[in-house]
Amino acid sequence: MIEVNEQLAEVISNSRVAFINGQMAEAFKLAKEAIKLDENCADAYQCAANVCMSLSRYEDAIEYYQKAVNCNPNNGNRYFSLGYAQASVNKIAEAMQNFAKADELGLNEDAAGQMYHILGIVNQEFGKLDDALINLKKSELIIPADMDILKRKAVIYGLLDEITNGLQTANQMKLLAPSDYSGYQAAYILLKQAGRIDDAFKELRYARMNLPSFPFALCGDMVNYELVKHEQDGDTIHFEKALAYIKHFLKKEKPSISDVVECYLTAADLYLQLEDADKVIECLVAAEKPVFSYNNGVLFGEYTPQQLDPNSILNEMNANLYRYEQLSVEQLEAMRKSGTYITPTEESKADNDEYKLTDEAFDISAEDRDRINRMYIGAYTLLEDNRKIMYYALELQKSQEPSMIELGWYTEARAMRDLNLDGWQDQYGSVIKKLRNNILKDPTDINAMILRVRCLIDTEQFDEAEEKCKYLKEELQKPLMEELNEAKNGGK
């Protein structure tokens, strides 16, 4: 009997060593061997379950963890492991029962910290924000300095509109991980939510000065800031600045293929706002062929930053995109006061190493395909090329999203009208019927309601258009009534 126990302990020990070193097949084989030696050994089942969890074989893991619980029903850690596996496959009710049992029996600190963390995540997903904060704080007491906990707390404080607590959490994130953008981003989002947009931009400035690189998330938030400012003052210079950030990111950083695609699509949208149809099309083509386009410098290769007011550090950063990112705050301030600039004496070797994307398989997502087709329609509308508009309207009708299909119907009918093709009136009639049927199926389909009004305006059914317009919310009525009045006065 003693020999069997020693052999069992040796096999379990070897299984754990193999698991720690990533030898999953060997670890599982040894765990099964241990189970054969003693079918009532909880540790043997635990070893097998841990391997299954690492391989994302969650149902198998649940089965083995359950057997470990059956063998050792008074061990809270066993119930935690079982609950963790159940939570991984969204078996929330069962997971909560096992977590409650684990809490009742007691468990080690590491497991307790993880359990409260998971409970906080579950609470957050179910909208129980106060409970989520309580559990995350419990986890934080056991496992301090955890970035995921801090990120979740910041998000929850934002949802609760507790801006001060959220900003305190963001500051903790900055102290814990000064080279991570997450803390600055949390502060930016919270300050923007509070309507303190200029203070929010300061967070982006500080991030740009303090971080060793220009992460994609920071680039996206800087673009977002310029769009918010455009909403406030209507100045199209904000679109130009946003484009400058994107070009700088593409030129100076090492983006992934998905980052590159998003940059090209965002740039296309910005050029659409600037009514530069040729640039829109250039960016959309680039997004469809991201590796070739990026490696050949499409959009950013020819870019030369425009100098603005040299005495303003803010304008300097907007125009030159923080060319002096390696300088300290004190050096930047000294440069601002003196109005001087420092020209680097030589490029580093790293600057000369040209980064290229590898030609790996990449598929445009269905959502991005819809964005591309919509912006092609926008570009060719600017160019008044109705045949191309019709082509992309038909492409949009292949979408998986009902709203995109509806837009495709409407755009096709409008292009037929503008081309004066035979049957365009019948096409509008067909679209109106399809939109009406969609509204009957889903009375909340605002997109279908708006497009139906536009169809009625396009076909000069003004009285009916005005009647249908009254069914919409006031903020939706206003632009449609402007379109209707313009059409009545002879505009298309």
From TrEMBL:
Cited InterPro entries: TPR-like_helical_dom_sf, TPR_rpt, Ycf3/AcsC/BcsC/TPR_MFPF
Domain of life where this protein originates: Bacteria
Keywords: Repeat, TPR repeat
Entries under Gene3D superfamilies matching the protein: Tetratricopeptide repeat domain
SUPFAM superfamilies: TPR-like
TPR repeat start-end pairs: 42-75
Record's protein name: Tetratricopeptide repeat protein
Organism: Ruminococcus bicirculans (ex Wegman et al. 2014)
